[in-house]
Specification:
Butyryl-Coa Dehydrogenase, subunit A, domain 1, globular, alpha+beta, 416 residues, single chain
Length: 416
Amino acid sequence: MAERPDPGALTAVMPRATVVGMADAEIVERIRELRPLIRRNAVRAEHERRVPDEVVVALTGTGVHRMNVPARYGGYQTPLRTQIDVFAEIAVECASTAWVTLGQAGVSYIAALFPDEAQDDFFTGPSGPDVRIGGTLVPGATAVPYDGGYRVDGASAFATGCHHAQWHLLTAAVVPAEGQPQEGPPEMVWVAVPMSELEILDDWDATGLAGTGSNTVVARDIPVPAHRVLPVGPMLAGQTPSKTNADDPFYRMPVLLLFCAWAASAALGLGRAAMTEFGERIHRRGITYTFYERQNEATVTHLQAAEAQMRISAAELVAARLIDEIETKARDDGSYTPQERARIRAESGYLTRLCKEAVDLLASAAGASSLQRDVPMQRIVRDIQALCLHSFINPATNLEIYGRVLSGVDPGTPFL
């Protein structure tokens, strides 16, 4: 089992009363104030394969984990546009830290769709609305009906931020007890388990997003009461058991599309980071084996910088459009056509690809010295490559899904 800090001991640096009711602009500004701390710890996060404790504490103190927590618990129900700004600001300095933060803040949205009794468990515990909840959508565990609830057993990989989480939403397949017949395909559910009851395997050692602590977590015959279970299929269709949040427009936003938008925010931050890094380097170095003593004086540099910035700007426009549609529909009736869902998912992948193309262009012009591990550019390249491999925003997969719908065939996935 990997060592991990006591999540309950990682208290916020701000008194809770100072963050309740925080304005949207204020939370973005608090994140900006933390950027130097996040930047200083980016290399350390890579080496330790998880976000350092002091960064987690500081981020928790901004109220970032409250953004999707219901207001009745002291949460903010922060507009999606502000959330994207927050996560992108973090990603400018460290994509691993952004990925952990957006993952846990996003999973709190799912937690708010659980039965109300489970929400009381999550949001009125020792950490209150600042609770950090992790989760995975990779089914590797089983849930066997038992005494009104379930007994859960199995492993779940890619449990981002598990070392600092207090709860984890584990994806499990419901299977009958031994000796009972299985009727039809197993139902997929999320089961909420305290992290203290899960084992963390020391198996996260990646080249991209290396500091996310996305280890495998293991459940060993853990009892889970029925109120801490959320069926995945109905949830994707907009049917959730929370009675208190049922009529709240904020919780009408489709979970899958939200995760596409949140994940894409990291690409925006990485694109901006590459642009800033490139802009600083070209004034300090020349182009080897040419007469240019300053790279910023070369025509090729002007073309590279302009092309990269145009791709990042185009990505920002795509992001603004899909964010506006998700928020607008939530205020209306929250309904989507399959084509609209597929398009928004495709747009999240497309803007991520635009940012990757910008990063690749800038990195190819940054010179061999940018390969040094203490130079952010090489880490930006590895992180955005890893980001593009994630199924939520994989550019090729998302384009295929959208193309299938445009061509009048089934999208080939329920994850829309």
